Amino acid sequence: AQSVTQLDSQVPVFEEAPVELRCNYSSSVSVYLFWYVQYPNQGLQLLLKYLSGSTLVKSINGFEAEFNKSQTSFHLRKPSVHISDTAEYFCAVTWNSGNTPLVFGKGTRLSVIA
Amino acid sequence: GAVVSQHPSRVICKSGTSVKIECRSLDFQATTMFWYRQFPKQSLMLMATSNEGSKATYEQGVEKDKFLINHASLTLSTLTVTSAHPEDSSFYICSARDRDAAGYTFGSGTRLTVV
User: Fold this and answer.
1) Which of A20, A72, A73, B10 is 20 to 30 A distant from B27 in Cα terms?
2) Residue B112 above 70 pLDDT?
3) Selected residues 50-109 of chain A with any CB under 8 Å from a CB in chain B
């Protein structure tokens, strides 16, 4: 079975500082990996995803994540955060066969401090 | 991009009544819809997988008679919380694989409060 571990439940960081949100997964088969962001009382918005190909994937708002198969990780990074990045971030995995659901990590609350 | 419209966004109901939540895929056909539940400050827990034209598959511990799922068409799936109790208060979110199957689109969620 697939599982996702987000080691940090909360990450406070000062504005314009870099940040890394960690995500490790467990799977015996090939996976697709995702990062979603959730603002209060809203649904999830896709930040970026890894399906295949280049292991470094980037979002339009400056986030990036690198798929590391040997370390079974998919950490999310941003070189300089903004106040508006304050939100809950979820890492998710699914296996790439059939119409399968996403399995989510417990989430990391990113708080950007002015 | 693919859009899933979820309604209502918020609902308050009395204990013992039933509430229906709708999710529609607006510009693609969602043969499968996933229903999640999220408690405050927690992650999303998969409740069930609904397939168009067939019975939903429920995760262990989810009461199928309490959370009725119907997926009568390729663009509409509904979740009905029957005989709601305060412990059913939660945030419910639906999700579908998008049209090119390269990702998942989420509804905006429904905040259910049972009083």
Assistant:
1) B10
2) yes
3) 51, 90, 94, 99, 101-107, 109
Rounded to the nearest angstrom, the minimum Cα separation between A101 and chain B is 7
| Chain B residues with beta carbon closer than 8 angstroms to that of A49 | 102-103
Cα dist. A49→A22, A59, A75, A92, B104 in Å? 15, 9, 12, 9, 10
Which residues of B are less than 8 Å from A109 in CB distance?
Answer: 41
How far is residue A97's CA from residue B104's CA, in Å, rounded to a whole number? Answer: 14
What is the distance in angstroms between the Cα of A104 and the nearest Cα belonging to chain B?
6
End-to-end Cα, chain B, rounded Å:
37
CA B5 to chain CA centroid, nearest Å: 11
